[in-house]
Design goal:
With 189 residues, the protein is an alpha+beta fold. It is built from five helices and seven strands; from the N terminus they run E-E-E-E-H-H-H-H-E-E-E-H.
Amino acid sequence: MGNDHAPAPESSATTVGRTSFPSRGKVKVRSRMGRARPAVNTGTGEHLQLELLDKDEKPYAWSGGGRHVNVSKRLAAAVWAKDRGYTKNDKLVYGHSLFNSPPGDEPLRESFRQIGIALELRPNAVSSSVGNLHKGGFLLEAERVGKVTFYKLNGRAAYDGSAKQQHRAIEHARHPVVPVPSETKKEAM
């Protein structure tokens, strides 16, 4: 049997510090650079920010940039699931709306033609997909300019903004549904 208390060998890629407990009971963290620094403010009990990188190491810089959208994974997965009534074009248009909508409660101000060019779809196909997504509650009518209707993402399915703004945006928004609701045709009287 091996020694259960033997320290694990430290890999060269690891930058995690080792914790030591000196005789005075103060918790200190020792980085690979060898300097020991306090890990906790003993007066308040608050954890202190520790720099565990060597002098020559640089912290990871997020270069993706841009804003992040809060998306309901359950609803998005249901849209992309097979046999849920949403077509491939519907999924493309929904994805385009997710990634190109302005922040907040603003509508995506692009025509069906512009969206069609971006997605390599005909404007009629974009119109049909927007109709399906609107029936399902993923896109909501936001404003009309002449005969053109602009749509926005339903804040219950996806939102680009603070939680407080999202809460205000969904106060009166309907819940998105999966599968796509079927159209009820009016009967002649």
